[in-house]
Amino acid sequence: MGGRRKFASASRPPSVWDVDHLRRELESIDVDWRHGEALLTYLAHHPEVTTWADVNWAALKRRVPQKLPAFLEDAFSVRSTRVASRHDSKDGTTTKVVVELRDGAEVEAVVMRHATLRSTRVTCCVSSQVGCAMACSFCATGTMGDRGDLSRGEIVEQVLIARSLEPSTRNVVFMGMGEPLNNYDSVVGACRLLLDSQYLALRAGRVTVSTVGVVERIRQLGEDEPRVGLALSLHAPDQAKREAIMPAARGHRIDRVLDAVDAHVALRLPLITKGPLIMVEYILLGGCNDSDADAEALGDLLEHRFAGRLMVNLIPYNPTPDLPYDRPTEGRARAFQAILTQRGLLCCVRVTMGSDVAGACGQLLKKKRGAVDIEDAAG
């Protein structure tokens, strides 16, 4: 559970995508939920619509009662969030969007375009909290502390913003600001809307939640929503080193975390028959956790885990002002990868995207208004 946010002075009503609230309000005026579903289907298919004035009510008039538009305009927002600023990388692969929430807090979402042989694959990285309580020593977001949870609607709206920029957005990763499993109900609720064939219609496996290892929630996610993929932010091959760079690891022993992921994978095996079922994220911090010995220890830790259905994603550290780490050389990253590959593990080195707009892994951060932000410092 995140910190408390203050909505008393909110300038906009809550999101129409906060569907439990929407359902209750429609029931209070004797409007059947099927009309709410029709409205959400329309909005999901028209991400360019951001206000009630933009809605083509004529196209919906057979599916919604006459009294509904006026009621909705007072009680809900088509978009409770707004784009405060947009930052495009020089190479065009990455767009970082600063999203202002209705209470004035800000989070960041990132749209990433990956060129493939046949097309461009577009992924949206969303935030689930304002700040983060995990305080990972290599992550800019961790310096903010925990400032509160996002609602289901505020999460979905980030994806709709991405769809308005890139209609072909087909992958969503919860790797932005926050620990998603500490905002469990909103995150799972948002995932279900993203996967619902009526709404955003993403396929099973196209939505991935990243966690530092909230043990009880890892197991629960596999039971509640096995269509959602899991990425484990491991970042060290043993408990002592993990605690040194990730203070929250003191409450999540590495053996218990891996056991929970094994249980999660077992629940997904019948649903996803091909490909990796778990991504293990490992940030390479130059001179800290990137030695050959670290690679061998990581191989020992993982080679008999997760039914062999895993991929190790090595992430060379993206330098961030005021954080005490260096980026490893490309040769060091490749040597680390080679050791894991020789151990029979599927392993890749993540291509850095968006570092010139502070949209790369570990760089998302919002400071107080008027302060220098990372994108300014990145020049």
Structure description:
The chain has two domains: 19-75; 82-378, Aldolase class I (TIM Barrel), CATH 3.20.20. It is 32% helix and 19% strand. Strand 10 (278-284), helix 10 (292-302) and strand 11 (310-316) form a beta-alpha-beta unit. The model is unreliable at 358-363 and 366-379 (pLDDT under 50). The strands form two sheets. The chain has a ten-stranded mixed beta sheet with strand order 1-2-3-4-7-8-9-10-11-12, with helices on one face. Strands 5-6 form a two-stranded antiparallel sheet. The chain has helices spanning 19-28, 33-45, 57-60, 68-75, 152-165, 184-195, 215-224, 239-245, 254-268, 292-302, 330-342, 374-378; strands spanning 82-88, 94-100, 106-115, 120-125, 129-132, 145-149, 171-174, 207-211, 229-233, 278-284, 310-316, 346-349. It is built from twelve helices and twelve strands. The chain has 379 residues and is α/β, with parallel strands linked by helices. The longest helix is centred in the last third of the chain and has 15 residues, at 254-268.
